[in-house]
Amino acid sequence: KKEEEKMKEGEILQIKAEEEEKNKPWEAPYDVTFDSYISEITRNILQLPSTRDQIVSLAFFVSDKMGGPIDLEMLHEFFWELHIAELKHELTSNVIPIGKIEKGIYYHRA
Question: How many CA atoms lie within 13 A of 44 on its CB side?
Fold first, then answer.
């Protein structure tokens, strides 16, 4: 009987833990790479004297992190769609941490 009671208690605890897990609000996974981007931006770009210099430097930074400059004529060879699809498959999610995107076009970069 004691073993049966322990098993029932274990099952009840497991069910409660599963319910608590289901009721937890969704949280995005921590993005180490994005955090390092923020640190680098804070350290290097915010120190620039004018807002214009900061904007230009940030644009170059983002462009560099997401595949570099792309000529419109060469966009068909950039293969950003494959890269994004691979990330979605790898993460089994449509939510992709910014730090994982290495090939992005204008709306990824924005």
Answer: 12
Cα separation, 65 vs 44, in Å, equals: 15
Q: Among residues 36, 33, 38, 40, which one has the least CA distance to residue 98?
A: 33
Tokens of 9: 């208690």
Under 8 Å CB-to-CB from 29, ≥6 apart: which residues?
A: 97
Secondary structure letter of residue 24 according to DSSP: S
Whole-number Å distance between alpha carbons of 23 and 47: 43
Mark 56-94 as b/e (b = at least 16 C-beta within 10 Å).
Answer: ebeeeebeebbbeebeeeeeeebebeebbeebeeeeeee
The reply to whether the predicted model has a pTM over 0.70 is no
Write the pLDDT tens digit of every residue in 32-58: 999 999 999 999 999 999 999 999 999
- Write out the DSSP string of 70-96: --GGGGGGS-HHHHHHHHHHHHTSS--
